[in-house]
Amino acid sequence: MAQRPVEFEDFLPLMADKLGDDGLMEELCNGFRLLMDPRRRLITFDSLKRNAGLLGLDGLRDDELRAMLREGDTDGDGALNQWEFCVLMVRLSPQLMEAPRRLMDQATREAFGPGFMS
Question: E strands within 1-118?
Fold first, then answer.
């Protein structure tokens, strides 16, 4: 039986389990530095396009790369700072947030009763 390829959504939780919170953050920071424009200290369209091959993204079109930047760009400057990059990486991996979400739901039910979230 053929195994399916590992997707990014699967990979980040595996890294988190293996590296722990601090190790995961360090790896995300390393990924940011790999992709950023060293002069601006931001991930720009040009730096993402230039370095996309390092992440296996060299087949993406320009409009797809721009869409990636737009998705994470919360301050509207057209680039990603380190915080925006890390938030985007976590958002792209919904499994990573599943355990905290369950804990929050449980705490809410315990504090406000089971009918609160219905």
Answer: none
Q: How distant, in Å, are the alpha carbons of 32, 51, 109 from that of 47?
A: 11, 6, 46
In sequence order, the 6+-apart residues with CB closer than 8 A to the CB of 115 are none
Question: How far is the C-alpha of 89 from the C-alpha of 9, rounded, in Å?
Answer: 9
Residue 66 buriedness (CB in 10 A; 0-12 / 13-18 / 19+): middle
Residue whose tokens read 């940011």: 32
Tokens of 54: 């390092």
Both structure tokens of 55 = 């992440």
Q: Which residue has the higher pLDDT, 97 or 107?
A: 107
Record the pTM.
Answer: 0.63
Give the alpha-carbon dihedral of 26, 10, 34, 25, to 10 degrees.
-10
Residue at token pair 């390393």: 30
